[in-house]
Amino acid sequence: MADVDYQHLEARLGRALLAQRLKIQTHHVARLFGSGKVWFHIEHIRLLHRIIRNLLKAAGLYWRGHRNALTVQVNSDDLPCPDLPEAFAGFRLLHISDTHIDANPELLDILIRLIEPLEYDVCVFTGDFREGTFEDYEMPVRRMLELHRHIKTKTYAILGNHDAIEMVPALETGGIRLLLNEHVMLEHGGSSICLAGVDDPHYYETDNLDKALEGVPENDFKILLAHSPEICRKAAFAGINLYLCGHTHAGQICLPGGRPLLTNSKCPREFHAGLWRFEEMTGYTSRGAGTSSVAVRFNCPPEITVHTLRCK
Questions:
Q1: What is the pTM for the complete model shown?
Q2: 61 or 11: which carries more pLDDT confidence?
Q3: Does residue 1 lie within any of the structural domains?
Q4: Which of 193, 227, 231, 264 is deepest in the core (most CB within 10 A)?
């Protein structure tokens, strides 16, 4: 993979936040305790992953859970956006999150098959392209670019807590525009709305919403891509209208009825999955397309979602 231009990334993310991210990536990314918004990071305990897999196999549940993890649902919903410009009524966003694309060799072909017939205006990824947190990132980048070749529209994305900043240049060369505390304006029907994205707020805590919204008029309709729902209050008070995120996997392993055992996020339970509302802001937390730590799901199917924006 080509050398990374860190000066270019510094200009986009900001010097202090890039330095913070690189320091954590280099020295602290494998720590189990203490960093980020939650105290304990199960994704770093490889021995525990093996123990869980072996226990599920011994109980005769592993392969059923693995099949569940590959049964990706395509969901369609209407998102109520009262301040949406009328020109964007019916505008469709294909929302894909948490592919962890290198964790499950079968997932790439499944996602390609599901995406091919869909109709949408823009595609957005809300982070966690890779499974590892400190290993090779070149193979997940190649797989994501293979997936992207089957996406028919412009694509915007943010990094998650599993992703390395060094992935940015290759992803962008392949056509996926990363928003590193940045925004773009989406044009449609003679009108425009703001699409902003922040860097990972969960583990690296390198999000900067003020920078992402710099220069955006206060009354403009604003969509925010954030990896986790954990900055929902900050976003609502900053005037975000629509908040799209993932990270939680909605628990991935849930009790009957969908009650999660663990969501690895510090926010109210109602923000862990699906459609939610905070103050005047609409939010949606994807259950994710992939799996983390152990390639199984129970009572919590994976998803990709086509969101249709509605004025009412």
A1: 0.91
A2: 11
A3: no
A4: 227
